[in-house]
Amino acid sequence: MAKKAEVSVEERLRALYDLQLIDSRVDEIRNVRGELPLEVRDLEDEVEGLNLRLEKLNDSLTIIDDEIKGKKNLIEEAKTLIKKYSEQQKNVRNNREYNSLTKEIEFQELEIQLAEKHIKEFKVQIEQKKEVISETKDRLKDRVAHLKHKKGELNDILKETEKEEEALKLKSEEFQKKIEERLVKAYNRIRNNVKNGLAVVPIERGASGGSFFTIPPQVQVEIASRKKVITDEHSGRILIDAALAEEEKAKMEKLFAKLSK
After folding, report:
1. Buried b (16+ CB within 10 A) or exposed e, 119-143
2. Are residues 42 and 157 in the same domain?
3. How many CA atoms lie within 13 A of 257 on its CB side?
4. Which Gene3D superfamilies does UniProt cross-reference here (predicted)?
């Protein structure tokens, strides 16, 4: 079986920078979406919360209505008892029986007054809750409209970029396979540790890209020779020479143009 060809350091550097350009392009696409996915999620949560609030408010209205019906039934029962006790008073044999029935009538009259008081209080609660329901419905209508608008924005961006992003992810995986696992792990670790996600950078005006620390001329010569993987002692980024970077950028721009169609 033929031995697998040894990958040169230069080929590894080119593959690493190609991987960096691909991942940076994915970062750009995600930056275009920005905070939209989070905004949509927050709005969806808010709409769900408002719907739940309306459901609870309507349930509480039903409970209050049942309470009012209960109090009205109590009033009717009390009126029936008052009528009954009043009829019984006509046939009492002594004052003690008459006074006892009078007390029962008075008690039922108090029950009616208390029930009527509760009914009034319940009606006030109903009006207050109806006001809150109205405000909540207005808020919900506004949030649903805003959510629809934001979802439309997000869907438009996704339609434009989803296909390209998926293709770029596959390319990223493809290029990672060209690089030894140790280097891929180092690349991903550096990417995760820097704000802009740049793990592989070219030399620009004697310093690593995005840095102000000058790289010694001897080290610059070593980087240009492409014989070993060299990292910036200040940022930890993998360094490549400007010429290699330009060549790979030109190559990858053609790939991006193809993928974005």
Report:
1. beebeeeeeeeeeebeeeeeebeeb
2. yes
3. 6
4. 1.10.287.1490
Q: What is the dihedral of CA 242, 243, 245, 247, to 10 degrees?
A: 160
Please give the mean pLDDT across all residues of the chain: 90
Question: In Å, how far from its chain's centre is CA 235?
Answer: 33
Give residue 20's pLDDT: 93
The model's pLDDT over 52-65, given as tens digits with 9 standing for 90+, comes to 999 999 999 999 99
In a domain, 175, yes or no: no
pTM surpassing 0.70? no
Task: Give the containing element (helix H, strand E) for 199.
Answer: none
Residues 167, 22: Cα–Cα separation, whole Å: 10
CATH number at residue 69: 1.10.287.1490
b vs e for 106-115, b when ≥16 Cβ sit within 10 Å of the residue's Cβ?
eebeebbeeb
